Amino acid sequence: MSTASSASPPRLRLPDADWPMLAAGALALLLLMLALLAPSIAPLDPDRQSLMARLRPPLGFDRADPRFWLGTDQLGRDMLSRCLHGLRLSLFLALFGTLTGLVIGTLLGMAAALGGRIADALIMGLVDVKLSLPFTLVALVVIALAGSSVPVLVLVLGIAYWAHFARLVRAQIMALRELPYVEAARSAGASGWRLARVHMLPNIASPIVVMTTLNFSNLILLESALSFLGLGVQPPTATLGSMVGQGRDYMASAPWIVAAPGLLIVIVSLTVMLLGDHLRDRLDVRLRDR
Length: 290
Prior knowledge:
Its main location: membrane. The chain crosses the membrane at residues 20-44, 89-115, 135-163, 204-233, 253-276. It is found in: Cell membrane. 66% of the residues lie in helices and 0% in strands. The protein has helices at residues 19-36, 38-41, 79-114, 116-132, 135-146, 150-158, 162-176, 180-187, 192-200, 205-228, 240-247, 256-283, 285-288.
């Protein structure tokens, strides 16, 4: 007669979760949804002025108005509505600025690595000139000549970090172009651009993705700095940086005008940088095996 086994049934073991990264991902998704739905969920018109309700503090403080959860600014505009719309525009500028720099830098990096010595010398000389110039001076010149519209700001933010992408792509392609599988494809008659597009770019996608996330965070801060200096989107349109810049004269009497958009800038930048570090750890084989 057989006896029942006393061994307990196997338990389902879930893989270890990286809870900080999961929290960062959830926060990033929340910020993205707030930005996309800003016109629908903002309680008031972000540009509507009400001088009778100016400098109202957030809920929970004396003189707070229940209509304005985060208070009002120096012109009586709702801070919550302006933060939502400012987040939307700041993320838009940073996203398209990052994509612009990615495209320009990747194309020039490929041309430098595969175009011969003359092309390499010219492009890398241009990269060195770009890195040697103060970016604020470049932004001043471009905005003075072309204005401060949204397309111009996307272009300005795009040229901020294209040189970093160009140097990265050039270095990665030069390291790959002598490998056996690339030599085999070249012997089969593949052109230089086909080699880069089909055989090289897929293998350098990991560092490009990581640099894209890190530069996105940098562009959030850069857009805020330009708006703080008055070089960004002009009033009354709200961005996070312009809100901080316009409220700096009221920091002593109404600190919430600067605190709300400033806290959003910190949260967005920190979230994107955490995700970038996570992608680096997951995509880099040398770090993944440790």
